[in-house]
């Protein structure tokens, strides 16, 4: 099984093994290729590079730690399942974030649905914890949770993960105009806390 | 505020609320899943040829040995090759058929989502789903607890003595029955109104009839099967004969049949207590486990022939028809579990350290997952195979 040092060695200019310290220099395509060939070190390096962004995006869209962990974890497992046929010319990051944000939106919608069903038919469902925006304490997080999940998603993609409106439109399968209007409304709704920079 | 300030504020908000252990847990899951992933092979034809030749020789010897179950060579070869299905996946990364598993392992209870994500509920001695898997009732020592699938405690109560088993009422989920020492007790689904109900034989778990109505079957202290309306404490019917030791009470999915499973024979009653059939297993076989399909009147039975060290899984229909043996191997199997859609049967195989996902209605297409003990007893020097698994609702 190829280790990370082997990968670094292959991409090194002198064709010999490089120390693991060189992790940061190994290109993503090389890591994906190594992962396809059985390097668990490469998988771990890809995880390390992308975990924070995926988990934090899910956390801000759902407002729920456990759900965010599940969603981010499932996105990585989906990436693993897709690994054998993954196109090395495509960057992994937007592909992963697209899964995360769409699942986080689905989860937030489903939570609303569960609350409605539980109140009517299932007494045990009514006792589930709800994410309480006030409990979050921090103003920006609380303000964010007052938005709908779709608006939260575009704000998170734009301002946490730094995607352009065009990239967001592609990730969420939306017209670019819709992305812009959701960004504008989202930033308006964040209110006084954010003196919004209007989306371009 | 600039875009950079907003980004910093969002990062800070996320950082302050994130669970620092989430990364480590997820990385563990990812590594386990990756171990099951088959890497893209490099092109080394000579190596494949040599490997193929070795596999062919060892495989032929293994097949020959497996056909001679009582021979020393057979035992040695099985020991060398290992029991279990070949080509097993090395980790559970997806639950075929969907649904959620509740696994009781040595170190505690676990929930496994359909995508294979595992969550440890806590160090409990036993666990059982609520009817829609919105909660689980779990127990350890004298403590009975209701938790949600994320492990958050909803309520907890102390029992008079050590708890042996608990079952959440099907249908509305308003009641929970549990056995504390030799006393059957009932508590409301919100943890209130705990009361002693009857004296029972503690080795037989009570069983709620599906479909609501709070009808409960249990074996009383004299060994007789009782079926009561728990709401009114009224007896609906009772058998005159005592059941043998190690019996199990099992309601069919529609609640029209009660199967009383004992090692040597099975008795089938209808909903009003009429004995419909009494089936001895015969030919050296004893029944170890049975589970009704989630719909219809089929039941999967695990039987073992101790003399031949042979176990088999048969699917029978309570309305008649021929039984069908769908899987048979040397060794012992654990209690199976049907998928919520009734298309898969999870069969634990402790000696192989595998879970098999069988297709009772298909001639082929089973899936094996290996390294089960390690996945549910991580960190243990000698991991134990999980004791039970329940499979619930999509």
Tally the structural domains of chain B: 3
CATH topology of the largest domain in chain B: Methylamine Dehydrogenase, Chain H
The order of strands across the largest sheet of chain B is 3-2-1-28
**Helical segment count of chain B:** 5
Distance between the termini of chain A: 48 Å
H/E element string of chain A? HHHHHHHHH
Count the helices of chain A. How many? 9
Shape of chain A: globular
Summed over residues and divided by their number, the pLDDT of chain B gives a mean of 85
Structure write-up:
The complex is a heterodimer of chains A (200) and B (394). Residues 1-24, 114-137 and 196-200 of chain A have low confidence and may be disordered. Chain A has 200 residues and is mainly α. In chain A, helix 3 packs across helix 7 and helix 8 packs across helix 9. The radius of gyration of chain A is 20 Å and the shape is globular. Chain A has a domain at 137-200: Arc Repressor Mutant, subunit A (Orthogonal Bundle). Chain A has helices at 4-11, 28-36, 40-62, 65-82, 92-120, 139-145, 149-160, 165-172, 176-190. Chain B has three domains: 3-34, no CATH class; 45-81; 100-392, YVTN repeat-like/Quinoprotein amine dehydrogenase (Methylamine Dehydrogenase, Chain H). In chain B, 18% of the residues lie in helices and 39% in strands. Chain B has helices spanning 3-17, 20-36, 45-66, 72-81, 372-376; strands spanning 100-105, 108-112, 118-122, 126-129, 136-140, 143-147, 153-158, 163-168, 175-180, 183-188, 195-199, 207-208, 215-219, 224-229, 234-242, 248-251, 257-261, 265-270, 275-280, 285-292, 298-305, 310-317, 324-330, 337-338, 345-349, 354-358, 367-370, 388-392. In chain B, strands 3-2-1-28 form a four-stranded antiparallel sheet, with no helix packed on it. Chain B has a four-stranded antiparallel sheet with strand order 4-5-6-7, with no helix packed on it. In chain B, strand 10 (183-188) and strand 11 form a beta hairpin. In chain B, helix 3 runs antiparallel to helix 4 (72-81). Chains A and B meet through helix 3, helix 4, helix 6 and helix 7 of A and helix 1 and helix 2 of B.
